[in-house]
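In the present case, backbone shapes were mapped to integers, as reproduced here:
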Amino acid sequence: MVAALVDLFFPKVCYGCNDMLTDHEAFMCTSCRHELPVTNFHFNQDNSVAKIFYGRSRIETATSLLRFQKKGIVQHLLHNLKYRGHEDIGVFLGQWLGEELKTIPSYKSVEIVIPVPLHPKKLKKRGYNQVAKFAMELAKSLGADYADDVLLKQTNTSSQVYKNRLERWTNPKEQFIVQNSHKITHKHSLLVDDIITTGATLEACVNVLNSEENHKISIASMAFTS
């Protein structure tokens, strides 16, 4: 009875299209689930994400789960995750990608999963890092540790998603530092972000992590936009 009243006054809607959900659907309608644009980069040799970092940063491998398009389903999902507190989206995407990555040899050696951090001021304002739950689920699937105390962001920058390519590249370089370096020494880390655009943010993270001794890095993200 209580649940019915809650649904009446606060109906559950799809995070992808905002249509009402049926009793058998959870946070996403069946139609949107089937329309999600998967990349399958981690299953294929033609990997657009990995190509971004060729000649720029030393990585083992890289992948993204979904393709991002403006005004598309993935944008609606990530907007709900990032700005409306729906962290269960990160859990869902992390479980999905984690189940796939644990079957791939190059990811089986991952020992620690590191989310790209928010600047402390932005984290305090938002109340959560939108990448955290996604990264935690990847760590569970891969049998790896989760560590959000290895990277610290020193510069407070605005979101890159809605800027054009030139604006992304001409923005001041994002600065990160490594803490608790003993956690990654002689290990294979998986660096995790929400969206890869030009790759500038991840490049900055990778380059500072690569300054540590005998450290290997791979990359995974929820979405990729070309």
